[in-house]
Fold each of these.
Amino acid sequence: MTSIERWNKIVDIFNRNKNSREQNVQIAWENIFSELFDYSRLDGDIDSQRPVKMGVSTKYPDIILRHNNEDLFVVELKRPVLHEGRDQLFSYLAQLKINIGVLICDNMYVYDFDYSGKENKHSVVEINFLNDNPLGIHFLDLFNKASFDKEKIKSFIAEYSEKKDAVKLIQDNITPELLRKLVQKHFETDFDAETVELAVSDYEFKCLPKELHDGTPVQQNYPSLQSISTQNYNNSLAPEVVLMIGDRAVSPREFKDRLLIKKIAKRFWYYKDKTAPEQDDWDASKFRSDSNLLGNIHSTKYRHWKTSGLIKLVCVIDE
């Protein structure tokens, strides 16, 4: 079986077990690491639910992968609630003094964690469970028992993080003003600046990121109205409020829990007569556990939706 075939098999198993009980998910991933990564149950390479002393309590990491009696990396299995699973994984890595951890929930997150520090310093690679995903195929090769090399994995994570940061920096600087300047510069090689300015002044420049790239969601400056749930709007129906963490729509409970931690969110106000949403920041520094989330939202300019033409409000907290 090729690496591509093995990865696609993992994607299939992941999708079939999305709504399964925790025990079934645990067994599925133990089988994956045994049959597709070549870790031996007989040799004790797959250490499941090992008791780990955490202060006065005892916790049980889902899976610890080992080789020659050495702990290699920790795998934590969670439903799609990334921030809770990540912190729990970090606590295991710190206690076991292991750098490499894998969180499997909505996607797969591969961490290089600095357990010696106090600031949870880490780098991460996010791998979507999509067929033929190059990152997933590379993960298979790096984490296979025979080829496992911690330094190669750390380099892979570092390079991915640096590239991701560079891409974000470039995207943040792709603006309508930049496009205007580039167009002016192009034509000023053949025409005088005044003529170019007169020509360009009749045009409005816009930068709108594509919703999809090769079938994989990409980070946007604002959520596309087509990428989130929709409904029919009229003057008697209040606009829908969509709550998101990263690119996931979540419940008010989950959103509130994250807001209490992050203390800030982005708001995107979609109006029927505008092609792009208005964006502002939600300063939630005074938001408390007993605060009413939807009450807070409805007390903003949202309450003027009938006269403003508001059709949807999307609130987003970064992962």
Amino acid sequence: MNEQQSTPEPNLPEAKPEASYTSPASSPHFSSAPDGAAALRRRMRLLTVLLLLVIAALAAQWWTSHTELRSLRNEVAQRLQSGDNTNNEVKGVLKAVQENTKELQAKVSVLDSKQAESQSQQLALEQMYQDLNKNRDDWALSEIEDVLSTADQQLELAGNVQGALIALQNADKNLSRSDKPQFIAIRRAIARDIDRLKALPTVDIAGIAVRLDSAIGQVDNMPLLVDEKPVESATEPKRMQPQPIKPAKAANGKAARDAKAADAPAEPPSAWSQWLAGAQDTWQSMSTEMWAELKQLVRIREVQTPDAILLSPGQAYFVRENLKLRLLNARLALLSRNEFAFRNDLSAAQDNIAKYFDTRAKQVQTTQALLKQVQGSNLSIQMPSLAESLNAVRNYKARR
């Protein structure tokens, strides 16, 4: 190679290659091939970057869509859950409404039958008024029948025993005015109905209502468990206040020490021993008083319902009002002779008292005893009917 570099080739214009063939090495485009490969590599790199950017954008779009879809699913699930809860509540309300509707329909049917019976009685009264030309006995029997029918309705619907007794006694009195043997069977039936009504146990509705009113009036004065001031128990004895040591006691102790000293060999007491004995007596009295005061500072109580201690003043007000409403509902159930509701309301009231009120207080114990006495009253009395007297009157009228 050194020789070729040192000996340059001569210019030979005549030795040119043929025009029909050009070597790739001597072609003018041969030098641009590396540039094309570099451009191709740059394009590939650019396409790769663009592809990565597109993939990243697609991944970000997928992640965003996935996150939104997941949040949407959670929201839909929550809404479906709330919808299910609402549907359950609506079903419960609808069930209660259906039950109330059934009860109302039963009551309406009873009222319809009673109304039809009242209408028939009204027609009977109109017929009675139209037949004024009948004799006095027929008119008296029709009046007795009407009175007994009304008393039977009052006895069945409202349990008015006194009203039924008065109606039967008045009917027997009216029949006793006419000395006719035909009325003996009717009077016997009336007498048997009177005996059945008198044999019923008496229920003091007014007395029970007065006791409930008294319990309602005591609700505002009953202490709650959350009250700040501790209430003295009605059963526990009052604690004795610590009494300071009396001088006589100290004198007795001093006399005992003197006697002990007299038994010992006689030696004059020193000032130090006298001061030490006085200091011991003073420390004993002070420690006794301090211990008594410390025992009064801390009180430990065991509560079955911790929620009752955490009541706020507003919640305490609603606890008292809820107890009053329970007792008022029991009073209404008593007047309507609904024993099931009466006993349920009294049981709920006693549970509220035991849960939220201080049962050690005398007022609370008095109210509980009053409610137990009221709850012991028996309201489930099977009322008899006056069908025997009515049938006797109607059979006599049919035979005539």
Amino acid sequence: MTSPILKVENVHVYFGKSHILQGASLEVNEGMTAVVGRNGMGKTTLMNNLMGLVQSTEGKVTFFGEDITNLKPYQIARKGIGYVPQGRRVFPSLTVEEQLSFIYRKSGSPDGWDLEKVYDFFPRLKERRKHGGNHLSGGEQQMLAIGRALMLNPKLLIMDEPSEGLAPIIIEQLIEFCNRVKETGLSILLVEQSMYFAMNVSNIAHVMQNGTFVYDGDFKELMADEEKAQQILGIGS
């Protein structure tokens, strides 16, 4: 059996006296891994922990077998994890091209990501390349946040709530993007509240509830079981 790309084992995170992550465990393999759940269940806290933005008090995280538990964010990025944070966080005064270029890390592969390839995936960014981040729409900012992460030439791309606040037509474009990226061989860890988005890019659901995972299995089977879907997701089929 192939070893997981990323393995999260029994991770605990506290904010003061609040126990946010309560023994979260997850394996990320090749392709698309979708983490879903309602707001406030600990999904973003887990992603922040994986990227070194939040420290854990217990547990272990390994990336291609190497222990990266509680490393600093820049160290984790150098290991090969690209991060698209919730809320996009683009630089308002830098142009699209500046934001893509300054973070670029050359790949040793001829199929690596560079400015031309990002523009090929997101033609709208090329059209807006001279515009500052504060002059972009929400959808354009999300494209920029994703493109910026790709310019690091990561081995794994983490996307936290990429559909949040976007119009349906932009969400459809992001679904198409995720499916195209999967074809390039880049693995993605997607965190989403939107079941529609997640189900259109991944067949497997990892459901988080109260700081731990309570389901790991087929998306369609979960949604077909109305009682279970209502219990762990708060929705019916």
Amino acid sequence: MDQRVGILLDHKMYKGIQRNKTGYEHIGLYNKAAKELHLEPFYMSLLQMGKKSALGMTYDGKRYRLARKQFPKVTHNRAITLKSSLIAKLKNLAAASLVFNRLNRFSKHRIHNIVASSPSLRAYLPRTVKYSKENLIQAMHVHSSVFIKPTSGSVGDGIIKLSRGDDSSSWSLYIKKGKPLRKGRKSAQAFIHRFIKGKSYIIQEAIPLATYNGSPYDLRVSVQRGDKGEWQVTGIVGKVAAKGRQVTNVAKGGKVRKCEELFQASGFSVTDTKHHIGRVALQLAHHLGRKLPHLADIGFDIGLDKSGNIKLIEMNGRDQRITFKKAKLTKTFYRTYFTPMQYAKYLLVNKQNRATASRRKR
């Protein structure tokens, strides 16, 4: 069996491999997983690909070496591809290699609509609509608090939280850490419209999140396909908003905590809550996986309200697993690398078996 598995990285990350400067991506864990599974990792960048081969990095257990090789039969995509030239190169790679997580950047509104198409999953969604002046006016009538988010943003950039004041005529806008802006209804609407400047945004009902030491928290749930091709929950970790902030993103000062600690502080049953979150996360992954081809490695941001009810905040198509490392969940952190490599081996074996069966029929 061909043991080579492609791992597609952003070019900057790829260039940093030999200097051990790959940001949040811990390449050594791919190497460890590959050794355990008797696979050969081949690190690639779209900028160094030809029509049938790529100049990439191999690892021999001691050092990385540059080598030009034909496209591997299976590739795990960890690169964000937005430019048309890179999209064309990815399409060319996918014609020769089975690329899982080929698409990993999705509109928040698209994911919301896919989940909403399932009657059994609809209850886990906060109310979400595309941004428009009319929808903002309507949302401010219906909800006491909403988030205005970019449809394809990440790490909490560009998010506004809008909350009604005690007198019902004033509104607070939370944009950055510190004191919120206080404005009247129409002034708040005008400010938000100027802030957005015609970009694609959504309006999402704000969940009254459970809190830890007075700060709201949510959960990152890693859901991946493994050695039998089936979805599994690899890990759950909590993210607590920094003091004075309304978003939990670690990039915005959020702190990671083990989920057990958060559930205990909120008075939730640790065992029951973890089981419930895992069950819902798997249902979401199965449904989304049927609608989005080659989906295999995702992270859900899931919120719990103060009664423990579950709401899906968003799906991350390229899960930044570093939250598990920061929470000192070392074994779980490794499993988030090991599981996709198990899935890659599963795909390799299946592909080899199909090729063998096809030859026998001739």
